[in-house]
Amino acid sequence: LPVGAGDGAVPSPLLRQDDEQLELLERLDFVVRNIVELRKEVEELRNSLQHLAVEIVGEVRTHLEETQRMTRRKKFAFSRDRSDSTGSSSIYFTATSGNTNTDDSEGGYTTANAESDYDRESERESEEGEDDLSCDTVRTVRRDSLDLGPEDESPLLLDSSLEEGLGQLLEQADRLHSGDEQDKREGFQLLLNNKLAYAGQQEFLWRLARAHSDMWELTEDADERRSYATEGKEELELALQKWDQSAECHQWFAILCGLVSEYESIPKRIQAGYVFKEHIDKAIALKPQDPQLYYLLGRWCYQVAHLGWLEKRTVSALFDAPPTATVEDALQNFLRVEELSPGFSKAGRVYIAKCYRDLGNTSAAVLWMDLASELPGNTKEDAESERELEEMRS
């Protein structure tokens, strides 16, 4: 209430205090409401993370069980078709010298692969007097099979003509991979056409996986892209069990894991990030002078360094040891690329500029932007980098 009446009246100090207290109470009420809402959101997030954790455990267990079943099944699981000729020497079966059994059992046949899942059944049903399989037949089966398993103790040996043909094939595949869109499609089909003869060769398999990556890039349909990425990854899953010391196998397996993860759930994408880093590190250890590997590692570090708060919390909730990387780590890898191969790619220089910008070094960022502008754009990634350059300049 005013102290006095008339024009000389002034507000009471008590009234001002009441207004301040009312405003303070309103602010406190606003804070309390926000805290309650935040508490609800945190509780929902916790429940979601717990659900994701349970889901991941179930998926991992299912995957391990499927992997074990597939490993047992892929021990040269040849077709069980038979030949009507008792003198047949097909790549699937060899006829025995005994009488041919015409019922549904396989009494008169033994599989061409001594390691197949049907050995025990064949041994039980075989009769005395059956001939053992010749080594030539086994070698023929292994060379002609499209599904060579990782259980082979050593890579298949090619005769001189096939070995010479493989060298020419690999050279042509590399040339087509470096070409335009039509060349890459032709290279993919070329490798598919020769899979029958060279599916057991390390240099052939990682190039076939690389061709799947090319087709993923050239294809627009989401289902087809996923199919190409998945098939390429499967080619190398078996290869890595046999050739763990191949830098190229590790490199393209990491790349294809990243492509496949784009169609997976968030937990699987996070898990794929761990797999990617693991195989890139192995590839670098085997081939430390390859600039492409440091570029891929730099990309990984940059993405991890820019994870949002919610993404970091999700990763921390799902994994005991979340991935860690800084912009400085990414910058060192991109600079290593330039050290090994100056002007390796426009995209690499753009990333260097972005790293310097994030670190607050504006002059260095401008310098690398200018250096990036000098390089031609040969890939889709380079085209995207060109757009990023324009945005950074604006």
From TrEMBL:
SUPFAM superfamilies recorded: TPR-like
Entry's localization field: Cytoplasm, Cytoskeleton, Spindle pole; Mitochondrion outer membrane; Nucleus
Biased composition (Polar residues): 91-114
Membrane topology value: Single-pass membrane protein
Keywords from the UniProt entry: Coiled coil, Cytoplasm, Cytoskeleton, Membrane, Mitochondrion, Mitochondrion outer membrane, Nucleus, Transmembrane, Transmembrane helix
Top-level lineage group: Eukaryota
Keyword presence, Transmembrane helix: yes
Biased composition, class Acidic residues, residue ranges: 124-134
Coiled-coil blocks: 28-55
GO MF term set: microtubule binding
Region called Disordered, residue ranges: 75-138
InterPro entries: RMD1-3_a_helical_rpt, TPR-like_helical_dom_sf
Any GO CC annotation of this UniProt entry: mitotic spindle pole
Membrane keyword on record: yes
Family statement: Belongs to the RMDN family.
Protein name per its UniProtKB record: Regulator of microtubule dynamics protein 3
Species assigned in the record: Hippolais icterina (icterine warbler)
Organism phylogeny: Eukaryota, Metazoa, Chordata, Craniata, Vertebrata
